[in-house]
Amino acid sequence: MRIIGGIFKGRRFVPPANNWPTRPTKDMSKESLFNILNNRVDWEDMVMLDLFGGTGSHCYECISRGCTDATYVDNFAGCVSFVKSTAEALKIEDQIKIFKSDVFKFLQTNIRQYDYIFADPPYSLPKLNTLPDLIFQHNALAPNGLFVLEHDKSHQFKQHSRFIEERKYGATLMSFFG
Asked: Is 172 exposed, middle or buried (0-12, 13-18, 19+ CB in 10 A)?
């Protein structure tokens, strides 16, 4: 895992386990997504939420580019521990809030709004298709905010009322909602 832009550009982190239930976003997909985001968000003013955060790569990338208010949510204790130690190593503990929680439960109790929400759930997650509705039902996305959902071709969101566009990176799809 490497950070591709900002003040931590080039930093590499190696999660301590090969058998974690994670599938980190590939560098090509991540770089393309962040090129899109560079034209759509103000990093310094952004409040971001990373759902199914895994290794925390998405949070580190946003913070590296100037975000000072990132929230990370994952239910796997190994990932949460890794993100805490990486935040300490980067000295960004005051910029990232880390929650060990089921994403669906987190969304039900969350009272904050976020300018940018990224979700990278397991593609086989039975409730994956409900994520866009939950985000909007629980008012998690700020007005003029952007929600990006990473998924595969077995999920389609083009008919969703808040769908903006879809980008394809190999077998990976990213659906944008606003």
From this structure: buried
The CA angle 107-108-110, to the nearest 5 degrees, is: 60
Range of the domain at 78: 53-177
In a domain, 109, yes or no: yes
129: exposed, middle or buried (Cβ count in 10 Å: 0-12, 13-18, 19+): middle
Q: Write out the two tokens for 63.
A: 């913070």
The number of domains in the chain is 1
Instruction: Please report, in tens digits, the pLDDT of each residue of the chain (178 residues total).
Output: 789 999 999 999 887 766 655 556 666 788 899 999 999 999 999 999 999 999 999 999 999 999 999 999 999 999 999 999 999 999 999 999 999 999 999 999 999 999 999 999 998 899 999 999 999 999 999 999 999 999 999 999 999 999 999 999 888 999 999 9
Task: Please list the helix, strand and coil fractions of the chain in percent, rounded to the nearest 5, in that order.
Answer: 30, 25, 45
Within a domain: 45: no
Residue 37, classed as helix, strand or coil, is helix
Look at residue 29 and tell me if it is in a domain: no
d(CA 73, CA 102): 8
Asked whether residue 108 is domain-assigned, the answer is: yes
For residues 85 and 95, give the distance between their C-alpha atoms in angstroms, rounded to a whole number. Answer: 14
